[in-house]
Amino acid sequence: MPTYEYRCLDCKRPFEVFITYADYGKVPVVCPRCKSEHVHRRIGRVRIARSEDSRLEELATDFGDPAALEGLEEDPRALGRMMRKMSQELGEEMPPEFDEVVDRLEKGQSPEEIEAALPELSEEGGLADDSGDF
User: Fold this and answer.
1) Cα separation of 39 and 118, whole Å?
2) Rounded distance, CA 30 to CA 40, Å?
3) Yes or no: is domain 3-42 CATH 2.20.28?
4) Which helix or strand (DSSP H or E) is residue 39 part of?
């Protein structure tokens, strides 16, 4: 059953209503707080389903050119943005440590500083690779 977002024009509160497709437009919508029927439908966020191929194609467009990868070693913020975008495009669940590292990179902390602050990440089972680097 779809969820529809509304806002009460009397008490100004947003709320959601579950209505079947068959009942939409036929059943009156009432504010759960003040019981007013004076409500306005809001358009919620729209999600677009994309195939894995289209996500990988976008990554290739963004990062396929070697020039796009230049300077990442010197710019932790750019490295963090790249890592976050790749994670979002691949759509895979990442461990909380990943977000911690990317947040720190986006704030300008170098990989060496992150490794010193979070030594458990460079141990077995962390985000580091076999060389001890991120």
Assistant:
1) 50
2) 10
3) yes
4) strand 39-42
Look at strands 3-8 and 39-42 and give their pairing.
antiparallel
Could you count the other beta carbons within 10 Å of the beta carbon of residue 56?
12
Task: Give the pLDDT confidence of 15-71 residue by residue, as tens digits.
Answer: 999 999 888 889 999 999 999 999 999 987 666 667 767 766 776 676 666 666 677
**Given a cut of 50, is residue 126 above it in pLDDT?**
no
The model's pLDDT over 90-104, given as tens digits with 9 standing for 90+, comes to 767 778 888 889 899
Round to whole Å and give the CA distance between 24 and 13. Answer: 21
CA distance 82 to 86: 6
Domain boundaries, given as residue ranges, for the chain: 3-42, 52-121
- Residue 115 tokens, joined: 């490794």
Exposure class string for 82-94: b at 16+ Cβ within 10 A, else e:
bbbeeeebeeeee
pLDDT: which is higher, 52 or 84: 84
CA–CA separation, 17 and 115 (whole Å)? 47
